[in-house]
Amino acid sequence: MIPATTPRSPQAPDGLPAASLVTASFDDTAALRSVVRAAIACVLGERADHPDVEDCTHEALARALEGRSRLRDGEPLRPWVLGIARHVALDVLRRRRRTRRAEAPPAEDPEERGELLESVEDPAPGPEERAAQTERARRIDIALQKLPEPQRRALLAFHVEGLNYQQISRRLDIPLGTVATWIARGRRCLAEALGE
Fold it and tell me: Is the pTM value of this prediction over 0.85?
C-alpha cells in the first residue's frame, strides 16, 4: 500500500497543513481565514502574525466575499480563494518594491545611475520566457485532455486542488491503491506527451 501524501503546502498557523482545510467554506470563516493567512505569509515570507499578513488576509477574504457570485457551482472554494490571496500578497510585494526604490538615494553621477540600472535584474519573466510558459501550459492542457477521465480527475484533484490520496479515494469512491496508480500513470503520460 502506498502511503497517502499531501503536496507541499503552507502550514496553517495552528500547524496543520493547509491542504487539510480543503473543506473550508464561507460558513467556516475561521478555517478559511487560517488557509488564507498561511498562503499569504508564505508568499510574503513573513510570520503569520505580521501586520501585512493580517491586512492581506482581510483584503483577500473581502474580495472573495464580494466576488463569490462568480464562483461556479461545484467549483472548489480553496483554490479560488488562494488565488485571490496570492494576488493580494503579490500586490503588497510590488508596493514594497516601489517604496524601496522611491526611498533609495539617487546616484550622484548620471553615468553611475545608468550603471546601477544595468546591474539590477528584472525579476519578471522576459517575452521569450512568457511565450515558453504559455506554450508549455497549452501543451499540458492538450496532454491532460488526452488522459483517461479517471486519471485526469485524480491528477487534478492532487496537484490543483491539493487533496491527498485518501481524500481523492473518498471523493472518487475507489481504493487508495487505485488512486496512486492513476496519479502515477497520469504523470507518466504527461511526461511522455511533454517529452520530459
Answer: no
